[in-house]
Amino acid sequence: MKKRNTKSGVLAAVVFSAVLSMSSVFTGCQGAGSKAAEKETVSRETESTAAKITGKTVLKETEESAQKTAETSVPETAETAAPVTEQPVPETYVPETAAPEQTEAVQTEAVQTEAAQTEAVQTGPETAEEVYEEPEDQIYRMELSDYMYEEGLQSLTEILELQETEAQQLGMYAKRCEGGGMSVEWKPATETNPRVPITVNCVGNDSVAMLGIYCGLSYQEAKDMLMQSGWHIVGYDLEHPNEFYIEISDQECDLIHLTTEDAGDTVSEWMWLNWPQGEFITN
Questions:
Q1: Residue 160 domain-assigned?
Q2: Which pLDDT band holds residue 215 (cuts at 50, 70, 90)?
Q3: Has residue 120 been placed in a domain?
Q4: 147 and which of 134, 152, 164, 281 could share a cystine (Cβ 3.0–4.6 Å)?
Q5: Global pTM?
Q6: pLDDT of 126-172, one tens digit each?
Q7: Among candidates 203, 222, 202, 200, which has minimal Cα distance to 213?
Q8: d(CA 103, CA 124)
Q9: Where is this region: Disordered (predicted)?
């Protein structure tokens, strides 16, 4: 009985010693872990503090560097600025050393010039319509002699907007157009008669002309113009003839007849034809 108790006590003592030993080990482990955690925390705080110190140091160094740069930069002065090219001296420039009377004369001339320029700008040039008035004798007139052939006559009637009507002079195969104091009649060419007979008559229409003759022209001017161009007077009235004749070739001649107002000073009507018939007494 005593031996059993002794063994039990020894066993209990061994178990207690083991438990105590394990407790120490566990406590040591906890302590070691706690110390490691503390070291890691301290290390992190140290690194954070070092980073802050480093950032502040870098920021301070940057500010100091910028301040030094600003202090060392040299502002642009009259000496360091780029040279200015001298402008040419205007004519009205007066040097400081000029005599008072010269200065006054130059200034007076400059004031007069400026006043003249200002007046020219204010008034401005007149328009072309105000400056130039076209003379009456230079008003555009359509010259009909350029259209005295078969195709040209058709174009002429279209330009003048003449209306076709019944022929009166050249027979049933002729064409006649009228309008605006104008009449144009012609007979188309045929194989047996290639020549185109034409009659043009104008009454009071001054927008067209034949060989420079138009309604409203002085009779004396018309007569002189025809005579200088080789036309001959028809009839015995040499002072105030109303018909003029010109021979183009052996088989072709033209006749122009002028009608004047009552006073006889101005052409009021003219007729041109290229088929005059009969014998003409010319002078």
A1: yes
A2: very high
A3: no
A4: 152
A5: 0.52
A6: 444 444 455 555 678 999 999 999 999 999 999 999 999 999 999 98
A7: 222
A8: 31
A9: 29-84
